Amino acid sequence: MRFDDDAALDTSEVQDGRGGALGGIPGGGKTVGGGVVGLLVLVASLVFGMDPGLLGSDPSDGTGRVTGADAGDLAADCRSGADANTKDDCRIVAVVDSVQAFWKQNESAAGKSYTQAPTRLFTNSVSTGCGDATSEVGPFYCSADDKVYLDLGFFEELTSTFGAEGGPFAEAYVIAHEYGHHIQDLSGTISRGNGQGQNSGSVKLELQADCFAGVWAHHATTTPDPRSGRPLITELTQSDIDRGLDAAAAVGDDRIQERFQGEVTPDTWTHGSAAQRQKWFTAGYRTGEIADCDTFA
Q1: Rg of the chain over CA atoms, in angstroms?
Q2: What angle do the packed helices 201-219 and 88-105 form, to 10 degrees?
């Protein structure tokens, strides 16, 4: 995956909270709950016995600040596509820009005007409109504040813990999946994501987000960036797509359950099997048609 070297990046939609203070939440003291959907958050609660939230832990250093490496200045460091081609942080910015540009230009899919959804980067833990969360829940979208939350350390865990090959497009798939949830939020579909099991609303919601990620990937090299009028992503190879499919399979309910509990229990699934996740990403990528992502039909 390569970006247009001369393209200007918009860093305003990526909020960098790494190494920063934990912000308070009105009526705080709660953990992440309703309105949260993500690549792993509910699987973690089922497989590891986790509360999909802060888990009662305090990763701060006792001063109210989260420990971890300080973030760089995204606005200063990530100016162009050339930066995205050489710096991991800037690549995240570029992917967010590309995904949001696509959905803005196809906002009728949500039945209403597309509203920007910032991505907030964090380290270890974060306060959100849905409550407090730690990195253990994986990347997630909070419908209460319309933000995607991401600890970049997850991408290392995607390979070391979940066995994915990883790579730039594997990361892009994860981000595009979360923005799929934003589209579901705008359209009202997100309210249908409930229950457990192979045919549950939760599984259908997650598979639709996978399909939406595939639709974006189909159009990634042709979607014009609003600042330049040219596509921000100039190259997406079959190898990239294969890495995305590999990541989708790695976070399938059956793969995770088999890896961590030694048996597969389909009646507790919330995200879908490895095969299902690959199938629906492929369905979106193959046709590029949003209408082909009706997993609830």
Answers
A1: 18
A2: 100
Question: Could you tell me the pTM of the whole model?
Answer: 0.87
Q: Which two tokens stand for residue 96?
A: 């967010």
Domain boundaries, the chain: 2-293
Q: Please name the residue that has the structure tokens 């803005």.
A: 104
Q: What are phi and psi of 194, to 5 degrees?
A: -140, 165
Rounded Cα gap, residues 279 and 214, in angstroms: 10
- For 236-252, letters b (16+ CB in 10 Å) and e give beeebbebbbbbbbbbb
CA distance 136 to 119: 17
Residues 22 and 259: their CA atoms lie apart, in Å, by: 33
For every one of its 297 residues, what pLDDT tens digit does the chain have, with 9 covering 90 and above?
999 999 999 999 999 998 753 333 222 333 345 677 777 654 444 343 333 333 333 333 332 333 333 345 899 999 999 999 999 999 999 999 999 999 999 988 777 889 999 999 999 999 999 999 999 889 999 999 999 999 999 999 999 999 999 999 999 999 999 999 999 999 999 999 999 999 999 999 999 999 999 999 999 999 999 989 999 999 999 999 999 999 999 999 999 999 999 999 999 999 999 999 999 999 999 999 999 999 999
